[in-house]
Amino acid sequence: VHPNVSQGCQGGCATCSDYNGCLSCKPRLFFVLERIGMKQIGVCLSSCPSGYYGTRYPDINKCAKCKADCDTCFTRNFCTKCKSGFYLYSGKCLEKCPDGLEANNHTMECTNIVHCEASEWSPWSPCTKKGKTCGFKRGTEVRVREIVQHPSAKGNPCPATSESRKCIVQRKRCQKEGKGKKSREEKRKKSNKDESKETRQESKGRAARRQNREQRENNNKTQPKKRKAPNKEQDLVPVDTAQ
């Protein structure tokens, strides 16, 4: 071992030197050179830093630099994230997206253009005028639809979601609000009132007849019985005219 090489290193180094830092790493760690001013220092890391990708070899695991426009990469020719000002597409960093694609400034990727999609039209609504469906001949009917897919920045815009057209209906009078219900209610109340009136009249009649009957019975009890007047014709004694 070279006198400047030490095996009692720290920070994951298997061998190191005072001048160059780590010279080799312990198993499963990645060796990478970090520049400090004009000097490069070797360090051992569990994963490669941003701008580097890892490669494993039988004797050493190394971190290699990504391409200049890559922020992170899987291999040198396959980027996973681009630096500012570039858009990721199929592992490459581009300043402008290909035709048929658009730049997504949120993800910094080239994505497919999405066009607006709308549902089918609903059936036409009843013919109305000023919120009513009666009392007029010409009105308006409406149909609507929903947006099921909103467009991306370069996608086709969404169409109108409602349509209206003139309509003609057979004129009919508007029934006053609650008139039918009110009429039925009034009839029911009147019927109940008439029934109650008849019931009261019948009760009064029965009470009056009962009162008259009781009064007659009381009168019969309190007044003396009249003697039957004699029949004068029967009391007369016949006179024998022959004598």
From TrEMBL:
GO terms for cellular component: extracellular region. Residues 116-170 form the Spondin-like TSP1 domain. Its main location: secreted. GO terms for biological process: positive regulation of non-canonical Wnt signaling pathway; Wnt signaling pathway. GO terms for molecular function: heparin binding; signaling receptor binding. Interacts with the extracellular domain of FZD8 and LRP6. It however does not form a ternary complex with FZD8 and LRP6. Interacts with WNT1. Binds heparin. Interacts with LGR4, LGR5 and LGR6. This is R-spondin-3. It comes from Xiphorhynchus elegans (elegant woodcreeper).
